[in-house]
Specification:
- By secondary structure, the protein is mostly helical.
- Helix 6 runs antiparallel to helix 7.
- The protein is elongated, with a radius of gyration of 29 Å.
- The chain has twelve helices and no strands.
């Protein structure tokens, strides 16, 4: 019986030693001794291979190893882009906001703002992942507006940037989308007989946006809504503006377009 007790005590001691050993061990850092340039190269290779988590970890190590150097700034931007590619929009935006806060004089600010706009643009407008007949304007508009503001920073502050032409094009697309969102809501109200609400949303589109394709339908909704309310003078005024602005409009002859007709065009 005594030998059994001794064996049990020995086993317990051995188990405790093993557990203690496991608690005190530390993960092996394979980057020890690597130069900052090697870490950067390895991070890029991991990202190109689709190993986004590993790439982000390496970029974070590089931020610490090369702190205070242009390479550390580049690592932050590349980390944000990697998070964006991995579909981690919130993390990418947080990384970019931190970059903008820490490096207000960086020569890469134009790219930081452009990437911030791009993250919000793809997340909410879904241009590249959408079906051809999907009405993108029906989605939440908050990030679209934030995307527009980021692109506007690029266009206004860095007119000669390589990212400015694309930023300007995306701004146009966003404006068209936001205008169409207002018209979509106006059409919704009109179809349900809420004519005053339809008029208010159509007028918002006409007031807040210019040269957007959706404004043609906004005017048509005004014409129809005023007519439904028996406001002949306002109806005729809206129709006159529509005929002058869109002399070849098919709305007046065909009515509303089919729901399957996409409002937007690929730019």
């Amino acid at each position: 019986m005594l030998s059994f007790r001794l064996s049990a005590v020995s086993l317990c001691a051995l188990g405790a030693a093993v557990a203690l050993s496991g608690c005190t061990s530390t993960p092996v850092d394979n980057t020890v001794g690597w130069s900052p340039n090697k870490i950067y190269t390895e991070a890029k290779d991991e990202r190109d291979a689709g190993n986004f988590d590993k790439a982000v970890t390496l970029y974070e190590k590089l931020e610490g190893r090369a702190a205070g150097t242009p390479l550390a700034q580049q690592a932050q931007l590349d980390k944000a882009y990697t998070q964006y590619k991995a579909g981690e929009q919130a993390q990418a935006l947080a990384t970019l906001d931190r970059f903008l806060r820490l490096h207000p004089a960086s020569p890469a600010l134009d790219y930081a703002y452009y990437l911030k706009g791009l993250v919000n643009f793809n997340d909410n407008l879904g241009l590249f992942g959408s079906l051809a007949r999907q009405d993108l304007s029906e989605r939440d508009q908050k990030a679209a507006k934030e995307s527009f503001e980021s692109f506007r920073e690029v266009v206004s502050r860095y007119p000669d940037s390589r990212y400015t032409p694309d930023a300007r094009t995306r701004m146009t697309y966003i404006v068209n989308s936001l205008a169409q969102y207002e018209v979509h809501v106006a059409r919704y109200y009109y179809q349900r007989g809420a004519y005053l609400a339809a008029i208010n949303r159509a007028q918002t589109a006409l007031t807040d946006y210019t040269d957007a394709p959706a404004l043609e339908e906004a005017l048509f909704i005004l014409v129809r809504s005023y007519d439904a309310l028996g406001m002949a003078q306002l109806r005729d005024d809206a129709r006159r503006v529509m005929e002058n602005s869109y002399p070849k409009s098919e709305y007046l002859s065909r009515g509303f377009k089919s729901a399957s007709d996409p409002w937007w065009k690929v730019w």
